[in-house]
Amino acid sequence: MASGQPLTLKPQVKTLPKPKTVKPTPVRRIRLIPKAKPVPVAKRNVSDSSITPQTLLKGLNVARASGNKTYRYRSEMHWRVNGMIRQMRWGKSPEDAAKLANVSPDQLQTLIDYAQQ
Known about the structure:
With 117 residues, the protein is an all-alpha fold. It has helices spanning 53-65, 76-89, 94-101, 105-115.
């Protein structure tokens, strides 16, 4: 090195490796099988078609709002009707759900009447 020249440092530049290109994973195509049509069952009463979870819930809410003490919030009937609604949403028929929840047909008819108000 020459003594009269200033020392110059060159910045070291690191070259980073090129990032690897990742191919997207292939999308699996699933063929949807059409649902089988329900097998016809013995016909039920016409009133049974009106017993849906939505109808029962509406009847319960209207009964509670109208001041019916039997269906007030957190009462025994409130829990029973909610249990019946839950069973129906899980696939039970209204008759089976009513038996499991210990709800009588008269009480069901009362809720349906409240729902239709």
